[in-house]
Amino acid sequence: MEILRGMRGLLLLAGGAVLLPACSSIQESRGYIIDPLLTEAVQPRIDNQQSVESTLGRPTFTSQFGTPTWYYVSSITGQRPFSRPRIRNHSVIAVQFDAAGRVVKVDRTGIEQVAFLDPNGDKTPVLGRERSFLEDLFGNIGQVGGAGLPGGAPGTGPNGQ
């Protein structure tokens, strides 16, 4: 009897040890992987677009309007089993250039600048009237004419024939 209790306790302990790693968070890097040594090497009024690209690589995206700016976006997410990934660390490096292509300013921002959007439920609001399920199902009966079908009226088809 004493041996069975000891075996049962040992089995429970071993089972818990096996299941414990399944509860840990999985971390994943997304976007640009920031190397602090390289990002500190980019200096305003010294570097240009070519030297920034050779130091940091190609940007995640560039500005389309206004001051020419290159953005390097990095996120580290963590995900527990059976849940959505959550952002643990987020940073953006924005390198601004002048008209000659020289670095004017290097900005570093973090997760405090991220805008979290709350979508409106599971439906996308659309303009127009609300239709019920039955109206969606039976609403087009009788609406489709025979214009494009064989035997339809001439000159009313999709090509005017």
The count of DSSP E runs of length 2 or more, i.e. the number of strands, is: 5
- Helix percent band: 10-25%
Shape designation: flat
Q: Give me the number of helical elements.
A: 4
**How far is the N terminus from the C terminus?**
93 Å
Q: What Rg, in angstroms, do the CA atoms define?
A: 30 Å
Mean pLDDT: 79
Structural class: alpha+beta
Residue fraction in strands:
15-25%
Poorly predicted parts: none
What does the largest sheet look like? 5 strands, antiparallel
Helix-strand pattern, N to C? HEHHEEEEH
Q: What does the model show?
A:
- With 161 residues, this protein is an alpha+beta fold.
- The chain has a domain at 24-115.
- Helices cover 24% and strands 24% of the residues.
- It has 4 helices and 5 strands, in the order H-E-H-H-E-E-E-E-H.
- The protein has helices at residues 2-19, 36-41, 49-56, 133-138, and strands at residues 26-31, 61-62, 69-79, 86-97, 103-109.
- The model has no long low-confidence stretch (mean pLDDT 79).
Which helices and strands appear, and what pairs or packs with what?
Layout: H1 2-19, E1 26-31, H2 36-41, H3 49-56, E2 61-62, E3 69-79, E4 86-97, E5 103-109, H4 133-138
Antiparallel strand pairs: 1-3, 2-3, 3-4, 4-5
